[in-house]
């Protein structure tokens, strides 16, 4: 009895960082499990890309958003893993020679460098479809069935042609001469913000958020997506340009590093304010937002 009582007590005294670390380990273990069902070259390529590092920012956001309400954690896990699989697919395709043509990802050879373009293309497709399989097959309590279907539909939309993929199209057709804050904002909101918004909305919906809570978390996700991309652009602009590669859209290059840093802070603060306004405590969400202002 003593031991059982200590479990919730231990939960309460765990720091926010410890809880996030525990979530990350749970996600890593589950991703490893779902990707171990076969050892074909395709699954080897999928595992190479998903299990080779990564901050797991999107699954953490999903679990943190659920945690802000009253979740049953086991219900959320397949959805948290699904957003990471979608993210990993987008990275594989983004690294291909017809896109960014990158050789290194997370400090290791990109998927096509290790397995060839044909297998890498299919590995991306395999991860995308596996994500939807995980969500469709996830067991949820009866009262959450409608929300589960909503999450699957929304995730498809936000990751799709009007969301992340649409953002990637804006990226490849971008012209620096005609760039405005609005056009770059739309690009970032779609390319990076859409999947981040999908991640927090999935967690909030399945965590039982009210419509006010959901509205707050959605505004948080959109602002965090913008902050995430501006931050990435600040780091990117500080690096030497890649040999022979045309410079893609970059907030810090277009508007200057100082203005980009101001905007990064503004987007993080606007995200936190949205939570405040909606009465969402969400300590884990706040901590993840805070990470974007750190080195
Ligand atoms: C579908 C081809 C295709 C592309 C979709 C998301 C995307 C568009 C492309 C990925 C490339 C990219 C640089 C996107 C911007 C967002 C970003 C900084 C991704 C890196 O995400 P992190 O930092 O990476 O979360 P880890 O390695 O931690 O998972």
| CATH superfamily label | Farnesyl Diphosphate Synthase
SSE order: HHHHHEEHHHHHHHHH
Radius of gyration: 19 Å
Supply the number of structural domains: 1
**What's the N-to-C terminus distance?**
44 Å
Quaternary form: single chain
The total of helices stands at 14
Query: Which regions have little confidence, pLDDT < 50, spanning 5+ residues?
Result: 1-10
Bound molecules: geranylgeranyl diphosphate
Report the major sheet: 2 strands, antiparallel
* Percentage of residues in strands: under 5%
The CATH architecture is Orthogonal Bundle
Give the class from helix and strand content and strand pairing.
Answer: mainly alpha
Brief characterization of the structure:
The chain is mainly alpha-helical and 295 residues long. It contains 14 helices and two strands, in the order H-H-H-H-H-E-E-H-H-H-H-H-H-H-H-H. The protein has a two-stranded antiparallel sheet.
Structure description:
With 295 residues, the protein is an all-alpha fold. It has one domain: Farnesyl Diphosphate Synthase (Orthogonal Bundle). The protein is 73% helix and 1% strand. It is built from 14 helices and 2 strands, in the order H-H-H-H-H-E-E-H-H-H-H-H-H-H-H-H. The chain has helices at 2-13, 16-34, 41-50, 57-67, 73-95, 111-115, 117-137, 145-159, 164-172, 181-207, 211-238, 251-255, 257-277, 283-291; strands at residues 104-105, 108-109. It has a two-stranded antiparallel ribbon with strand order 1-2. Helix 4 runs antiparallel to helix 14 (283-291) and helix 8 packs antiparallel against helix 10 (181-207). Geranylgeranyl diphosphate binds next to helix 5, helix 9, helix 10 and helix 11.
């Amino acid at each position: 009895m003593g031991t059982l009582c200590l479990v919730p007590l231990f939960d309460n005294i765990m720091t926010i960082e410890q809880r996030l670390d525990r979530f990350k380990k749970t996600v890593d273990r589950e991703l490893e499990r779902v990707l171990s069902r076969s050892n074909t070259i395709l699954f080897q390529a999928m595992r190479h890309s998903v299990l080779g590092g990564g901050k797991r920012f999107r699954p953490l956001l999903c679990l943190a958003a659920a945690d802000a309400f009253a979740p049953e954690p086991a219900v959320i896990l397949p959805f948290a893993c699904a957003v990471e699989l979608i993210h990993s697919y987008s990275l594989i395709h983004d690294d291909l020679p017809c896109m960014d043509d990158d050789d290194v990802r997370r400090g290791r050879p990109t998927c096509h460098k290790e397995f060839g373009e044909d297998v890498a293309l299919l590995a991306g497709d395999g991860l995308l479809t596996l994500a939807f399989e995980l969500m469709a097959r996830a067991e949820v309590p009866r009262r959450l069935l409608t929300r589960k279907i909503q999450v699957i539909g929304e995730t498809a939309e936000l990751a799709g042609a009007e969301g992340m993929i649409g953002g990637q199209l804006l990226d490849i057709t971008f012209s620096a001469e005609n760039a405005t804050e609005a056009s770059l904002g739309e690009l970032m909101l779609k390319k990076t913000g859409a999947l981040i918004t999908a991640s927090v909305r999935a967690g909030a919906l399945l965590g039982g958020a009210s419509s006010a809570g959901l509205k707050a978390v959605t505004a948080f996700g959109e602002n965090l997506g913008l902050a995430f991309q501006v931050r990435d652009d600040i780091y990117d602009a500080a690096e030497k340009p890649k040999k022979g590669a045309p410079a893609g859209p970059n907030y810090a290059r277009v508007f200057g590093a100082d203005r980009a840093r101001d905007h990064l802070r503004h987007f993080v603060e606007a995200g936190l304010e949205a939570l405040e306004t909606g009465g969402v405590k969400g300590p884990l969400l706040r901590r993840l937002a805070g990470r974007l202002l750190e080195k």
